[in-house]
Amino acid sequence: MPPAPVFKRVLLKVSGEALMGGESFGISPQVLDYVADELIKAHRLGVEVGVVLGGGNIFRGVSDSARHMDRVQADYMGMLATVVNSIALQDALERKGVPTRVMTAITMPQVAEPYIRRRAIRHLEKGRIVILGAGTGNPYFSTDTAAALRAEEIGAEVLMKATKVDGIYDSDPVKNPEAQKLPQVTYDQVLAQHLKVMDATAISLAGDNKLPVIVFDLLEPDNIKRVLLGEKVGSRVEV
Ligand code: UDP
């Protein structure tokens, strides 16, 4: 018998920046294809998967290019950027024959379904990969917070944060060759030591609800599948 997954329903967060691959802006078709393939491996295990994508590859409300803008306007642009990414991922998945739904926190019915929690759960139960766009729908939040929020709402057992590093470090491993990887940390430790996992709002929300967070390298093939099979991949944030 093939190994069985340890989770039934998960929420995967992929940053917009990861979708850029080697490009300086926008979406790399190769990375998009790769993410779709990795998600299909999860889908084949029978795990119900919700996905939240960032928008940093297109626009961030707090970026330099937005510094003269009204923050709220800039954040709406950022949220729309996540919808652009969501549609791109939907297209990549459906070209490969996997059923999906995009649901957005800001309604745009010509483009995607509105996010309605009970419908999202129904789609998951029917085996569709559900891509949740437009963040929380509110300015001043991040897509990490959207991921923690949606994970709780849809009853995901874990928030899987796929990033460019292979876990949580005590300092930035890109800048500090002595940086130590921390296989397991608590929510309080992340907040107290300012560990670069997710922003404080997202970590607090996850911590308040005891939602485990697993941080791992997106670009290591099979990592999503390995996390789902319960292998020790990346770092975990738990109580
Ligand atoms: N954003 C927002 N509210 C949300 C989620 C996102 O206003 O609930 C905006 C915010 O401007 C943010 C941008 O969308 O900078 C893109 O999201 P994020 O920076 O989290 O993307 P990532 O860093 O994961 O690519």
Automatic annotation (TrEMBL):
UMP binds at residues 55, 75, 136-143. It comes from the Bacteria. InterPro entries: AceGlu_kinase-like_sf, Asp/Glu/Uridylate_kinase, Uridylate_kinase, Uridylate_kinase_bac. One of its GO terms (molecular function) is UMP kinase activity. It catalyses: UMP + ATP = UDP + ADP. It is found in: Cytoplasm. Pfam families: AA_kinase (PF00696). Keywords: ATP-binding, Cytoplasm, Kinase, Nucleotide-binding, Pyrimidine biosynthesis, Transferase. ATP binds at residues 13-16, 56, 60, 163, 169, 172. Its EC number is 2.7.4.22. CDD domains: AAK_UMPK-PyrH-Ec (cd04254). Belongs to the UMP kinase family. Catalyzes the reversible phosphorylation of UMP to UDP. This is Uridylate kinase. It comes from Desulfoferula mesophila.
